[in-house]
Amino acid sequence: MNSQIINLEVKQTSDRIDSYLSQQLPDLSRSRLQKLIEEGNVQIDGRVCTAKKTPVRQGDRIEITIEPTQPLELQAEEIPLDVLYEDEHLIIIDKPAGLVVHPAPGHQNGTLVNALLSHCPDLAGIGGVQRPGIVHRLDKDTTGAMVIAKSDRAHQHLQAQIKAKTAKREYLGVVCGVPNAQKGTINLPIGRHPVERKKMAVVPIEKGGREAITHWQILERLGNYTLMQFRLETGRTHQIRVHSTQIGHPIVGDPLYSSGRSVGVNLPGQALHARRLTLEHPVSGKIIEAIAPIPASLSKLLEVLRKRNS
Questions:
Q1: What does the domain layout of the chain look like in residue ranges?
Q2: Grouped pLDDT means (10 residues each) for the chain, 310 residues
Q3: Fold held by 170-277+286-308
Q4: Which class does domain 83-164 fall in?
Q5: Is residue 139 flagged as an active site residue?
Q6: What does residue 216 show for φ and ψ, rounded to 5 degrees?
Q7: CATH 3.30.70.141 fits 4-66, yes or no
Q8: Annotated catalytic residue: which of 18, 139, 141, 254?
Q9: Please, where are the H alpha helices in 47-188?
Q10: pTM for this prediction
Q11: What is the rounded CA–CA span in Å between residue 2 and residue 117?
């Protein structure tokens, strides 16, 4: 596998090289970028830069060399899957809370990919060794419908639907507070948080943010909380969680973006559920609609909030 070369030109004066790169390359952690700098894999105007505090200025040309990482050894594991739809081309599952989608350093086992390799032995290699068959992802504690491709043809077709925004992804979420309007659209770019690297944030396009569009509407007012329906037009990491927080109504139970206020229900994480997934079958062309039942934790939360406000 060849090294990846990234070339950047500084459009406006920044402060230091690691801060600048973290804004421009949100998919790489700040610690990874600092290590690339320290190992001499970053050049400014043809000169190797090994100090993370090196200032960068408008007009500087930066070259980053990223060596290929050692692939993880993926193992099939017999982890039960709740299947909503399946044929020889794709599978749609109802992902439970707590299940990580794909392995990563420090978390190589017990993931959805490990389960899929056991359920679908021919999945390996489809769409990339590290994430076989994965078309889109759900956060660890977000539940609901998720599609996985079983062939390269299906993988390419399904990814194209996501990119073209023809696949429809609808979520249910309980948020803190009550929005003033009945429905709306949030169109704010999202990128890696400049300081807290585990979080995403609203980041301007010119600083590395990527277009993110979320449509929402109120389904039910529950006192100081609201049951909302969200529809994704784009699929950025933590998109609904970041956007709902940005408008002042974070998802209940969100460990990263909510205030942590107790609602009297033991939630496994954020109260966010991928309720409905609608897509075109990559071979037959028929429309498939998969609906994931509301999980017990979200049902309990709604029951408690409705009793409080009855």
A1: 4-66, 83-164, 170-277+286-308
A2: 80 81 80 84 89 89 79 81 96 95 77 91 65 88 96 90 93 97 97 82 85 97 97 94 97 89 85 98 97 97 93
A3: Pseudouridine synthase (3.30.2350)
A4: alpha beta
A5: yes
A6: -140, 155
A7: no
A8: 139
A9: 112-119, 152-164
A10: 0.78
A11: 27
